[in-house]
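Table 4 source record.
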Amino acid sequence: MKAAAFEYHRASSAHEALELFARYAGQAKFMAGSQSLGPMLNLRLARPAHVIDISGCEDFRGVQVLDHSIRVGACVTHAEIEDGLFESLRAHPLQQVASRIAYRAIRNRGTIGGSLAHADPAADWVLAAMAFNADIEIMSAHATRRVPMREFMLAAYTTVLAEDEVIYAIHFPVVSSQARWGYYKFCRKTGEFAEASCAVYVDPVTLTARVVVGALDAAPAELSEIAQRIARGGLACVTLADIVTALVPITPNKDQIDRRLYGNAVMRSLELALGSEDAA
């Protein structure tokens, strides 16, 4: 199946992109890497009369180190992060996340902002952004605003983006040199969407931790009680049974087999972050 006919516009700046979007209000879609919108167009799940390509806009690209965060432009591709093109992201946990997204052909085109805007519950960036407590910088023709990732994704494929807004950049807090990170996902085969996933962030300096479960039927969810135990006492304070019990409220439509799968994803993420001791 092929896309319904549309008019293609290649914007050269964020200002031009927003101007075009306002001109064709209600009839236009933004396109970055087209790894989410492209299939939707071909399946005719989306039928915009105008497609505005922002992938070439320098405003949406680049990585900057600010006082308290690393600002990643929305149109930075997965492959650029994977390949270490930006010095501030070399050896950063985000490099590991990017390297495991789908297939190389998709990573070459897909963008971090496009993935977040699509808000697939099984996507890697929605999980990582929440685990890192990232902020999403959103732009419209009138203003910009920042929204915490935990408030950005409302449900599967649903975000707080208004009709006339676009993701401008993502702000990842600067990671402590002593912080620990673990990320694990179960896929039927390499490159496929995750059946269960988890990201863990632990900072022993501030005694804080986040344990975030992905590939749910909704937005990623935090296991706050498990995170508090980990922050206080490490991996030895948690068992697989504890994790499966904690998963019940966020997996109401899952059976015990599914919860065991999610539980193992959480445990493996914890082991990657904190060591390989047998806590189960």
